Structure prediction request, 672 residues.
Amino acid sequence: MSSIANASLPDALGHFGPYGGRFVPETLMHPLQELEAEYFRARQDAGFQRELSYYLREFCGRPTPLYFAERLTRELGGAKIYLKREDLLHTGAHKINNAIGQALVARRMGKSRVIAETGAGQHGVATATVAAMFGLKCVIYMGAVDCERQALNVYRMKMLGAEVMPVHAGQKTLKEAINEAMRDWVTNVRTTHYILGTAYGAHPYPVMVRNFQRVIGDEARRQILEKEERLPDLLVACVGGGSNAIGLFYPFLEDAGVKMVGVEAGGLGIRPEQHAARFQGGSLGVLQGTRSYILQDENGQIQLTHSVSAGLDYAAVGPEHAWLRDQNRVEYTYAKDDAALEAFMKLGRLEGIIPALESAHAVAEVIERAPGMNKDSLIVVNLSGRGDKDVAQVVDKVGLQMPK
Amino acid sequence: MNRITERFARLRQLGRKGLVIYIGAGDPHLEATRQLALAFDRAGVDVLELGVPFSDPLADGLVNQLAAQRGLESGTTPAKVLATVAAIRRESAIPIVLYLYFNLVHRHGVEAFIRDAAAAGVDGLLVLDLPPEESANYDALMRAAGLCAIYLVAPTTPEDRIAAIVRHGSGFIYYVSREGVTGMQTKLSDTIAAMTTKIRAHTDLPVAVGFGISNAEQARAVAQHAEAIVVGSAVVNRIAESGRSPDLVAKVSDFVGELAAAVKTAGV
Prediction:
């Protein structure tokens, strides 16, 4: 399969080869078709594109820098490392690229209310932010465990005027938040748009979220060509649902010389219920609207997951990633909790940048690979978010003391 | 003939309405499920809809979510549900539909699941999150196995979709009478008559109406507009209240008997 064919997916029903599609209760089928039609109309509409670019530039702060991490590069002694600074965006992560885009679509559809799920809270904050800006009513579903470990973001959402609904079902993390958001949507679908935060779920979400996030890769491609006059050798991004990764990767898919690595959450190690690396311990299944790799038991029940990072702590991976893995276009690996924590500290101390724990998984992989690469080779790593939200949790994990 | 098709044909002959009862399999345990099924048959239930518990029941309200959780806690697996259906079959010909999420079928293998379900004595499957757009292979396998593929129509379903859905369905069409998850309501949706009329314009299949019917009075009212009504959460709630007490089966089947009496006399 050629790389050009990779870039032309999904098909009309949202399939990426055997993955993707639309597996939802009948009540949502027609609303999804309406959303698909409206999104594709908007995409062709120059006015919509102008408005989107306006908000990305003036409100979110795009373009984000592609920053040469000089001290990290020197310390690792191999490839030159560039950081795509999505952490510098308004609200502190790449999530706002998609939240703005979907809020504009929701407005076109005349929806007065938006809902979202959130894991680490970054997508919830982004959604609460755009809802405030556009004057939309906003409800965010968040697992009760995540509310606790990402408390800062819960307060931010509330300050922005959103209602935060803690979800107490199951393991009280991202998957349960999505279930609850879908229950809300199915009940209020005539007035409400569901701003799904990752490249997952029923068609058109995976393609729509990818297209709103591809601005990351489009910019990075232009920027690296300006700075180095050539394409990078390697792209690295963390993969929860996979929106920051597909956003970086997608514009490079046809560049055969550019290798790509997606980094899943290895948690405590690849043993059942101790990680969230779907390509390591997962198998083909259907969950929350799409067919992809999921962590499940032999009966098809979804397994528990674990990661130090709430944003990667999810049992399924976006369908386009499953496809790109089958095509050998993207390699998927994992970083464990301890490697991510080490990368988190290292980037702070060497570069003065505290990354989100999610993004720290990608940095951990760079720390592994860069030393073995030539000094003239280039790595671009997506620094998808900043780590303020993780400070309290990391303090506990690494045992920092308040000075006496 | 398939037991569901046969039952609806007989109801039509008698000029009577049907009663479909939903319970979560394995709630509180599979032996109770077996006893409830047999008691429902005696109480006049026309179709038993057995929910196969799933870890992530995103179309279900809290009552049925908790039932699924109790089912999983009692060790209920799809294979054990099929074994329970086989056990019910030894004593009863009550038509049985499994209500389930697609991943449970997918994991087992669609072909193998349908074969095993048919062998156990299941009469139909209602796969919540498998729309006709994704079901070409499934429909063919279901037909070959003689099982009814039950499809949903919702208040949000436009007329052209209704026309497409009924072509895929067999046994009966399940009209979900309101937008939302499963659960009891104090007020019934006012779109039922209009939507069942629309469905009938496209098919001769019987229409069963469910989601939100919680007592005999509502059951009788809705039965005016449909060939059958479905009651789920209200029954599941009574199972939850009785739990593992010895009068569980008697209490729940008394309630179901009231519903049956209300439905059977409706519209006659």
